[in-house]
Specification:
By secondary structure, the protein is an alpha/beta fold. 32% of the residues lie in helices and 22% in strands. It contains 10 helices and 13 strands. A 6-stranded mixed β-sheet has the order 9-8-10-13-12-11. Strands 2-1-5-6-7 form a 5-stranded parallel β-sheet, sandwiched between helices.
Length: 330
């Protein structure tokens, strides 16, 4: 099986290669792709060395799957070219997510949205992925009515330059800023660009993507997304109201039984999800489970996941595994 990774030298691309290797994805030929300045360099994978190629040469190689993590403009330009030669594209940018005929997939939640004839598949926003992993089993039980989410997102979500900014600031060094303000010892209620309605694009992504993934176009949902000076993963405070009354024991059992979700909820022993503990893990961790006593059928949960793994690389690789499982690729 011939696999191309577009953006192989970036923060997410590097993690995708790590996850492909860890999960022993059946690769016979790896085609790492990066920017022109990286073409010709070598990367290690599975004990072998592979030469970084240009995206043009990768298209000519006609890989079975191309996993993209190289930004929206690159995806818009090149994903159709791969699709034209019969390559399944799994794209990690926001370029294709809201296109009506492009599946937006979290395999545990809506793998049935995959279509053999849809050669471009969108990987959702990192914060959306971990939230719908927690929402899906609860919706199946009680039927979602409204969702209010506030996020606490790691600087790794912005990339290597943002990580460097934070550590440079921490060490008192001069830095090239990625954010409009200092990030170390600060909190920025600002992820992506602001829209005319006062929301940010990141907030809009979470709201629109959740409706599409869960096939709930009328779902009432609002989001506030916040950048914090941490590594390891994103955290979310999720307030949910249902059409039926949730029962806490049933909630915990349903979450624990859902593939890829782990309940960490013993507050008396200070056990609850934290990005420090979620780092480099594939699971979505849920805790602080309690009823919202201010509203009928209300529930509060705290959701944490490694945004580079389940929020990006692992989810993309799981989609690729589904394509193989469905025998669309052999």
């Amino acid at each position: 099986m011939k696999i191309a990774v577009i953006g192989a030298t970036g923060l997410v691309g590097t993690k995708m290669l790590q996850v492909l290797e860890e999960r022993q994805f059946p690769i016979t030929e790896l085609i790492p792709v990066a920017s022109e300045k990286s073409v010709g360099k070598e990367i290690s994978f599975g004990g072998n060395k592979f030469t970084v190629q240009s995206i043009e040469s990768a298209v000519k190689a006609k890989p079975d799957i191309a996993i993209f993590s190289a930004g929206g403009s690159t995806s818009k330009q090149w994903a159709p070219k791969f699709a034209e030669v019969g390559t399944y594209v799994i794209d990690n940018s926001s370029a294709w997510r809201m296109e009506p005929n492009v599946p937006l997939v979290v395999p545990e939640v809506n793998s049935e949205h995959l279509d053999k004839n849809s050669f471009i598949i969108a990987n959702p926003n990192c914060s959306t992925i971990q939230m719908v992993m927690a929402l899906k089993p609860l919706h199946d039980l009680y039927e979602l009515n409204r969702v209010v989410v506030s996020t606490y997102q790691s600087v790794t979500g912005t990339g290597q330059a943002a990580v460097k900014q934070m550590f440079d600031e921490r060490e008192g060094k001069e830095t090239t800023p990625v954010y409009p303000h200092k990030i170390d010892q600060n909190v920025l209620p600002h992820i992506d660009v602001f829209l005319e309605n006062g929301y940010t694009k990141e907030e809009e992504k979470m709201m629109k993507e959740t409706k599409k993934i869960m096939n709930l176009p009328e779902l009432k949902i609002t989001a506030t997304t916040v950048r914090i000076p941490t590594m390891g993963g994103h955290s979310e405070s999720v307030n949910i109201s249902f059409h039926k009354e949730p029962q806490l024991d049933e909630v915990r059992n349903a979450l624990n039984a859902f593939p890829g979700v782990v309940v960490q909820d013993i507050p008396q022993e200070n056990i609850y999800p934290m990005p420090l503990l979620a780092h480099d893990k594939d699971e979505v961790f849920v805790g602080r489970i309690r009823k919202d006593e201010s509203v009928e059928n209300g529930l509060n949960i705290w959701v944490v996941a490694d945004n580079l793994r389940k929020g990006a690389a692992t989810n993309a690789v799981q989609i690729a595994e589904k394509l193989v499982e469905n025998r669309w690729i052999s």
